[in-house]
Design goal:
The protein is built from 20 helices and 31 strands. The chain is of the alpha/beta class. The chain has five domains: 110 residues, GIY-YIG endonuclease, CATH 3.40.1440; 63 residues; 179 residues, Rossmann fold, CATH 3.40.50; 166 residues, P-loop containing nucleotide triphosphate hydrolases (Rossmann fold, 3-Layer(aba) Sandwich); 96 residues, 2-Layer Sandwich (Alpha-Beta Plaits). It binds adenosine-5'-diphosphate (ADP) and zinc ion (ZN) (2 copies).
């Protein structure tokens, strides 16, 4: 009876190995308790340090002698932390993405839980009236105190809530001294009573026929798994579709999860959700503090959150009764985590919906080719919004051929002229240039020397106002040299145009039309992006200049001209996804023009106006462009018509990185031979990455490709055990990326 229990524990370590511990019987208060899925605190790796892990099994026997096993220090949960479907799905993800389960589990839970804190709300400071029937006239001359006391007249409020009403701590303290109010600690309320009172708070527009069809397609089949792709041009009313489907789900008493690329960049969208329903909405994103993240997680898990809106990792939220997942801007690259656990939130979300037997809606004006292919082949249900509601007209598209034109910081005379016309009508203009800094290169005009980062195969970007050279790959900075490193000449000039330089030029060309620059260099400060958005909407700025930060989801009613200053780089990239990204970028940026009553115009400057891709985009739009480009992918047997995994290795010594991958390749080949799948598994490499050296390390990669996903998964599952034992692996940093989207 009092025998300790053997527990297998998964820890957040980079190895696919789990460890056995003994759980002393006295820690288990109730014998019927499920241990699998509970967190434990255990000693690990000698020394006093303890680690948080999760119990994955309670085997009868251990591979090690019982007396050698260490004891669990503390059992952290009284019940499994996650629901069984979610826990099982994390196991699937660990296998599919070739990532250790212990780390998958840890990344899926809020930071405080990772650190071993209890899965419980923190008490909050509340204030209440001390005296029943208090005579408010006593405070007639203390306006602030009167205000605070009146707020507390009917029921107590949390300090946060009082602060939100403009009550300061000193006011509360004064009232406390007079014994009018008192503070106490209490758990925040977390009940699910919202279910009984779901209301729309706003009048909503009359739906278009297409919107109505999209909405009923989903709402008539709630409570079962189906994946929908809502392909709707920018400004066609996708959000309105989401809101209507949400209503049906909430009215059934079910919760909804909404995944968006970046919450900080889309405050307007969040506000629309909050304004529509009288239900509790919680946000999950990285700007929240750890306690707030945990609170959101708990509200979702206990059913007191009706809606959770979050970025990528919100897909791991646990719910009492989830009824719908919406993934907005589903093409967005931020849904793929690019390091350690390299999952794709879209793919995980679809698995999740399938397991929970609920609908999932993917929405985009520019669907990812993967999703589009699934919709075209009938695996997803395809919904369309092809028109903008009301008077909003699709913009007019034009190409400007730059060949032979005199340019001012990359601007052609035609574009400058167009800007003048639009500005003269008191409209706003967006210029889009995806290159921050003053200039992408600093060059010697005597000998052609280029200032190159010493640690990367990349040039330094010149930042004029900060007055330094900056490598955008390893983040190194370097003082601006006075002289050429090769010939000593002082004739150093910058070449090419970045946003900082374009801003300078715009200020000269349009002194009466203020320009605002929006890129990562000047939006670092908290709230600065939001402040800019407000100033843009109030009309303080007339010219908006930005990198792709400006491309996402904003609604600027007075913008009538959008220009892409330089897109040629994407036309001649060796990344097969570059054209897809350009198509998406063009369409998203173009979507910022003419969203309201005013007709918009989109202009693209290029030295290659004849390029078939640009012609498709300009003349026929993303819909046609993407379907043509998808055919090209099919011919080349590239994703989504095949599947890939990438093994990356980097080391200070190039040979070591390459050698390790050569050994990996041999292992993979052997496994493929043994399992008679060699003819269906393509293994390419090792080759140097397109940026071979970065931050001082040499980088190589090995590509595995197959038409059958499962062959890659299974082969890698077997191979991993060998990879982890290769002594050569200890000299390099290596990783596996399943379904990679970035090959740099
Ligand atoms: P998307 O999400 O597709 O970019 P939105 O949902 O933001 O589009 O809609 C664009 C604009 O059109 C918003 O201002 C929205 O309020 C408005 N809108 C949406 N649907 C309708 C409709 N049926 N009638 C009138 N206006 C609508
Ligand atoms: Zn020189
Ligand atoms: Zn560098």
């Amino acid at each position: 009876m009092n025998e300790p229990i053997i527990c297998r524990v998964a820890l957040a370590i980079p190895l696919h190995k789990q460890f056995d511990y003994l759980l002393p019987a006295h820690m288990v208060k109730d014998n019927s308790m499920t241990l699998i899925g509970c967190r434990v605190l255990v000693p690990f790796g000698g020394g006093p340090r303890k680690q948080v892990g999760v119990i994955t099994a309670t085997p009868k026997e251990s591979d090690f002698a019982i007396e050698k096993l260490k004891s669990v220090t503390q059992l952290l949960d009284k019940a499994p932390l996650l629901s069984t479907p979610l826990y099982d799905l994390l196991h699937w993800a660990a296998v599919y993405y070739q990532h250790p389960f212990g780390d998958v589990f840890q990344q899926a839970i809020p930071t405080l839980l990772r650190k071993g804190k209890a899965a419980a709300f923190k008490t909050q400071e509340y204030w209440k009236l001390e005296q029943d029937g208090f005579d408010f006239n006593q405070l007639a001359r203390a306006k602030k105190q009167l205000h605070a006391a009146t707020l507390l007249q009917d029921f107590p409020l949390s300090y946060e809530a009082l602060k939100g009403e403009g009550v300061s701590r000193s006011t509360l303290n004064s009232l406390q001294e007079k014994k009018v109010v008192a503070a106490y600690e209490q758990m925040p309320s977390s009940n699910s009573t919202w279910i009984n009172n779901v209301q729309e708070l706003q009048q909503k527009p009359n739906l278009s026929a297409e919107q109505a069809i999209a909405i009923t397609s989903v709402t008539q089949q709630l409570n079962k798994f189906r994946c929908y792709l809502l392909e709707g041009i920018t400004g066609s009313g996708k959000t309105e579709v989401y809101l209507n489907i949400l209503k049906a789900v909430l009215e059934q008493g079910q919760q909804a999860l909404i995944i968006v690329p970046e919450i900080g960049l889309t405050p307007q969208t969040i506000k629309r959700f909050q304004a529509r329903f009288n239900v509790p909405i919680y946000l999950k994103h990285s700007a929240l503090n750890e306690q707030q993240q945990l609170d959101t997680w708990l509200h979702a898990k206990q059913g007191s959150a009706a809606i959770v809106i979050g970025t990528r990792s919100a897909i791991f939220s646990d719910f009492t009764n989830l009824g719908l997942i919406i993934l907005d801007e589903e093409h967005d690259a931020s849904f793929k985590q690019q390091d350690s656990f390299r999952y794709h939130a879209r793919d995980f979300a679809i698995k999740r919906a399938s397991q929970e037997s609920i609908p999932i809606l993917l929405g985009s004006a520019t669907p990812a080719f993967e999703s589009l292919n699934n919709a075209l082949s009938g695996r997803y249900h395809h919904l369309f919004l092809t028109h903008r509601p009301g008077n909003a007209k699709p913009p007019k598209n034009d190409l400007i051929n730059l060949t032979g034109l005199p340019l001012k910081s990359g601007l052609s005379p035609q574009l400058i002229e167009l800007m003048q016309q639009h500005l003269a009508k008191n409209n706003q203009v967006i210029l889009f240039l995806n290159r921050r800094g003053y200039a992408p290169v600093l060059m010697c005009h005597e000998c052609g020397w280029l200032a190159k980062c010493q640690r990367c195969d990349a040039f330094y970007t010149y930042h004029k106002s900060a007055n330094y050279l900056h490598c955008h790959h390893c983040m190194a900075t370097h003082p601006v040299p006075e002289q050429c490193h090769d010939c000593g000449s002082t004739h150093l000039h910058s070449t090419g145009v970045g946003t900082e330089q374009l801003e300078e030029t715009l200020n000269q060309l349009f002194p009466d039309h203020p320009t605002v620059r929006i890129d990562r260099d000047n939006t670092r400060k908290k709230d600065s992006f939001n402040d800019y958005l407000n100033d843009i909407n109030s009309g303080k700025y007339k010219i908006l200049l930005g990198t792709q930060m400006l491309a996402k989801g904003h609604h600027f009613p007075d913008v009538t001209l959008v220009a892409l200053v330089d897109v040629d780089g994407a036309l001649f990239s060796n990344d097969f996804r570059a054209s897809e990204r350009l198509g998406q970028l063009f369409t998203q940026v173009a979507g910022r023009a003419g969203r309201a009553e005013k007709k918009g115009q989109v202009v693209l400057q290029t030295f290659h106006p004849e390029h078939n891709l640009l012609q498709e985009l300009i003349n026929n739009g993303y819909g046609d462009f993407s379907r043509t480009a998808l055919q090209e992918r099919k011919m080349a047997q590239l994703p989504p018509f095949s599947f890939q995994a990438l093994i990356r290795a980097e080391a200070l010594n190039a040979t070591q990185a390459e050698n390790f991958l050569t050994l990996c390749k041999q292992t993979l080949n052997q496994i493929a031979e043994t399992n008679k799948i060699a003819d269906r598994l393509l293994i390419l490499g090792p080759i140097a990455a397109s940026m071979e050296r970065r931050a001082g390390k040499y980088r190589f990669q090995l590509l595995i490709q197959s038409e059958q996903r499962v062959l890659i998964t299974k082969t890698l599952n077997i191979a991993l055990a060998y990879f982890e034992k290769l002594p050569e692996g200890r000299k390099v940093r290596w990783s596996i990326d399943v379904d990679p989207i970035d090959f740099i």
